[in-house]
Amino acid sequence: MTTSGTTIAAALKAARSRIPAAEASLLLAEAGGYSRAWLIAHDDDVLPDAVSQRFDDWLARRERGEPVAYILGWREFYGHRFAVAPGVLIPRPETELLVEQGLAAIVSLSTPRILDLGTGSGCIAVSLALARPDARVWAVDFSAEALAIATANAERLGAKVEFVRSDWAASLSVRDFDLIVSNPPYIAPDDAHLTQGDLRFEPRTALAAADAGLADLRHIVAVAEDLLAPGGMLLCEHGYDQAGSMQEVIVGKGFSPVRYCDLAGIVRVSGGRMAEAQPPGPRRETGAAKNSLGT
Ligand SMILES: C[S@@+](CC[C@H](N)C(=O)[O-])C[C@H]1O[C@@H](n2cnc3c(N)ncnc32)[C@H](O)[C@@H]1O
Predict the structure, then answer these.
(1) Deepest in the core among 48, 74, 175, 244, taking most CB within 10 A?
(2) Which one-letter DSSP state was computed for residue 18?
């Protein structure tokens, strides 16, 4: 417990015996609205009581296992700050690979049409929309709570994204996407990780999928054919040991497969390109997306 008159150095020293040092510095900086550089330069300063109390409260929550992102209410992703709350998955750094490869897949297209399936906080859709302001971006989730957070993130960050509440593509009336990206739930329901660390606090519906974690990935590959434009690309994030299964499904559906590795050399994004039509046909339905779940 931080007592009245505690210096920054003393508060941080005490906190480091309870949680990792980097997290202690981040929580204290945010509790006081300080920059990290300011904290280092002012470590003899006495903490104001209000800051001290907020820091104590956050430390206790973190000690109980609550994720830092939920305590602070935000997480950085692809250079942007996304608001998060327990109704959405906390964006992961590894998901930036999906954004990078998604952008590469549409680099030669003007005004590409993009779909993000299972948008959560909106981190993928919003990052793509900000990187490609000429794109039209749609984003789907079945969680009303997630869509409210994603919509607020898009508005605050100035991204143009059309959000649709839907069970995957079931209520989506738009088609002809040049790029579909998805980071669906892909953890097996009996995976012990679901009961450990940050995952305990995140929505189970954002994490776990039937069929050893492959059910949603398989469904998305199955419906992608009907959603993609000729030559369009599907890219999905998946678990470290799911690349082989994904490859089978993707090849089985007639896509030209692609796969991308993370920094550790593990395939974490798989997908495929649809064949080009000969000759290319006109765009199909381009009207506003339906919302059959009543929001
Ligand atoms: C792993 S989270 C990904 C969230 C976000 N795209 C990200 O990368 O941080 C999966 C998301 O899929 C959504 N989801 C799960 N099942 C769904 C379904 N049947 N239809 C639509 N969205 C679904 C969850 O609500 C969750 O937001």
Answers:
(1) 74
(2) T
Residue 87 has φ and ψ, to the nearest 5°, of -80, -5
% of residues, the chain, pLDDT over 90: 91
Query: Using a 6 Å cutoff on CB, does residue 122 contact ligand 1?
Result: no
Cα angle at 269 between 267 and 270, to 5 degrees? 95
Residue nearest to atom 26 of ligand 1 (CA): 206
Pocket test for ligand 1, best of 142, 168, 219 (most atoms within 8 A of CB): 142
What is the biggest distance separating any 2 CA atoms in the chain, rounded to whole angstroms?
A: 75
Distance of CA 119 to the CA centre of its chain: 7
* Per-residue pLDDT reduced to its tens digit, 127-149: 999 999 999 999 999 999 999 99
Q: Which residues pair with 181 in a beta bridge?
A: 116, 235
Amino acid found at 218: R
Rounded-to-integer distance, Cα 290 and Cα 295, Å: 10
Q: For residue 116, which of 68, 77, 85, 76 has the smallest C-alpha distance? A: 77
Token pair, residue 38, equals 């300011």
**Model confidence pLDDT, tens digit, residues 164-187:** 999 999 999 999 999 999 999 999
Do 187 and 193 form a contact (C-beta atoms < 8 A)?
yes
